[in-house]
Amino acid sequence: MYDYLIVGAGLYGAVCARELTDAGKKVLVIDKRDHIAGNVYTEKVEGINVHKYGAHIFHTNDKRVWDYVQRFATFNRFTNSPVANYKGELYSLPFNMYTFNKMWGVVTPEEALAKIEEQRKEIKGEPRNLEEQAISLVGRDIYEKLIKGYTQKQWGRECSELPAFIIKRLPVRLTFDNNYFNALYQGIPVGGYTKLVERMLEGIEVRTEVDYFKIKDEESFSADKVIYTGPIDAYFDYSLGTLEYRSVKFENELLDIPNYQGNAAVNYTDAQTPYTRIIEHKWFEFGKDEDGNDLPKTVISKEYSSEWKPGDDPYYPVNDDKNSALYKQYKELADKEGKVIFGGRLGEYKYYDMDQVIAAALNKVDDISNH
Ligand code: UDP
Q1: Which of 67, 86, 106, 235 is 20 to 30 A off residue 359, Cα-Cα?
Q2: Which domain holds residue 18?
Q3: How far is it, in rounded angstroms, from Cα 361 to Cα 371?
Q4: Average of per-residue pLDDT across 10-39
């Protein structure tokens, strides 16, 4: 008999497991995959830590979270500066003076602002969707070349049907600053995320390739409480209908060259290129192995976005009105499940970043301990 059965060995589950174990609870972590670390899982190929479920760049403004993760890994000084490729034209991201200079030839912040002001006039009143929000932030030219195609590929929906908040994730700056995130702290754990999660789970019982729905009534898995980090609709057997998710598929290639694109991430922002971005994993760690030697080969991943269907891995909740309303109904059911806590990107149907997931897990354990 366990105090806690934790379903899912991703960040939310691992943080809860660590904290509850340290508080003296008996914990079992299960995961239906054959590995820990959920979607932050990394795997070493030719000395390169490959982000198997897409690029993960740790960034946060939350000192508590930053201090917390330092306990389990050393972070390098990687700064995310993706490049946008629009039909062969290269632009700096996020939207900053380098981007504006390339787009319009403007040189000063004042000139850039004047261009944006002129173009944002077409939006009257509060932006009602992502398209209006984007144009009102950076104008139509940038929207057409750097936002529209990418967003439609990523979400499989028109920008006019998507919530405005998604694009607010991206900073807009009138300075020459290609740092994608507005974060005080940023980096990649040296040795990969799998090692970080392994350290979090040190000394804790973990069983992989275990499907919660198959074992939940088995005596050997019984626990006082369950922390469930899988999709909330799956937990309730889709009784109110299915929530929509976006999934991502990767085409990985090992290339016998040292440098494919000169950057960790290149976004393909036109509508025709079938993938949204190409990740070249070695650049998350400056192209070096653990001993500081240059790596002779490279691994790239082309990222294809698709609508989730049963059997796929869910990656992104689709937080449009329809899905948000359905989630609310599931949440009401969830609140009545006294024994089960729902958490994480899938359990809460929320577009969480890694630091937010960790903060949510730490808060949840604080909550539990205070009641
Ligand atoms: N985005 C965009 N063009 C880009 C990169 C991002 O329009 O080149 C927008 C797009 O709407 C996307 C959102 O910003 O859905 C967040 O994208 P990002 O790639 O940062 O999200 P991630 O997939 O990394 O969570």
Answers
A1: 235
A2: 2-42+60-74+190-243+315-369
A3: 16
A4: 98
